[in-house]
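1st attempt posting a full record on here, be nice pls
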Amino acid sequence: MAWSWRYEGTNGDAVDGPVESFTSQADAESWIGQTWRELAASGVTTVVLVEDDRVDYRMSLQPPAE
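the predicted structure (as C-alpha cells):
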C-alpha cells in the first residue's frame, strides 16, 4: 500500500505540491508535520491523505477561526 498527499487551495480545487509516496500512514503524517508550514505559505489550505485510491482523511492547514 502506498500513502500520499493531495493538496487543495481555498476554493477546494487541486493545487500543485510535492509528489511524495510513503510506505506507511505514520511516515506520511510525519512528513506533513515537517512541511505543512511551507505548503500553507505556498497556497495550500487543505491536505488530503490518500491510501492508494482511497481517501483516508482531509486536514486543514489554516489556523482555527477566532
